[in-house]
Design a protein that fits this description.
Elements (H helix, E strand, L loop, with lengths): L4 H15 L9 H13 L3 H10 L9 H38 L3 E5 H6 L12 E5 L4 H11 L1 E7 L2 E6 L2 E6 L8 H21 L4 E3 L3 H18 L4 H13 L5 H10 L3 H15 L8 H9 L2 H11 L12 H13 L1 H8 L3 H14 L7
Parallel strand pairs: 1-6, 2-5
Antiparallel strand pairs: 1-2, 3-4, 4-5
Amino acid sequence: MCSNREDKNTLYSLIRRSLGTSDGGFYTLAQIQNAMLLGRQQGVSSIVFDGFQKSKDGCPGITQNEYIRLKTEWLMDLGQAINSHQIIHQAEELINERLKKDGIKALVLKGSAFASYYDVPEVRQFGDIDIYSPTEFESIDAILKEIGRNHELECYRHTHCTVNGITVENHIYLTDARWKKKWMPLEEYLSMEAERDLDIKQEPGLCYPDAMFSIVFYLYHTLAHLVYEHINVRFLLDWFYLIKKSGHIDEGVLKEKLEDFGLLKIAGVVTNLCVERLGMNSGSVPSFIMEESNKVPSALIQKIEDDMFDTNHEGFTTSSLKDRVKRIQKYYLNRWKIEQLLGVSYFQFIWEKVSSICKWNGDKKL
């Protein structure tokens, strides 16, 4: 089921008001309620309500009691988000202290790393911790086995356990490395960049990667989510803040890497959505990405946006034969993603994945 255009427009309008990229508009109580519900589904409820508060003059029909009720709902959402951040931070600190004690350096990835670019990190929702070291996987895993519970190898890409009730993923690989022909060069690049980032860091413990690593990894992560599952508005906000806060980036190097790794098109897609829907300043975006953004067909943007707001996505959490068959069926139904974003046919995609899995030897060394 997809949300209607009016609800999406209200959601985007309130987000733009929160981001300061527009002055907002005039809204009815029903529009605000629907936008807040949609914001919860998209993982951006705090930003939606912030936009509502800044647009209060544009809601003349909303009574004080109705405003208080909406604010109470938002405070409950915000309270849960802040509590979640505190629990995750406590688990990160426990891991950090152990890494420091053993003289080990590691990167924090995904949710926590992307949240660090936000004006208010607490509004960026996430529920687990992702860590990575290109050279210390075994040492980190030994620590997690000691301080965590339910440790296991979830898939070839990472182990996971729970620390203070929070899922922690210790990554062996950062990409779908079994599809060697496509992603192994990117895997090697990210591994070298991570090692360089960690070499620069003087003190042991956890740290965030630099902007270049973050941009390249974000684009791969978003592309993988879009092809294998789906993305939501939170992914767009991550890109908005990542570009806003990245500072000076060597555009020549970035362009070369995105072209080499097949990530330029997804950069154009998320930029197009951010500029058109969130009011991102096109002048803040590297010029070559804006050029790619302008090339993205409107029909593809519409398909991706419909997919973002489709609530009927089915997730698969096991490697059982039944779930594998369902994944293949899902890939077929969404083959337009494979063809238009990866540039290969559905049948080539399936063949390369199956053949690479059969040949995979599980070695950590690249």
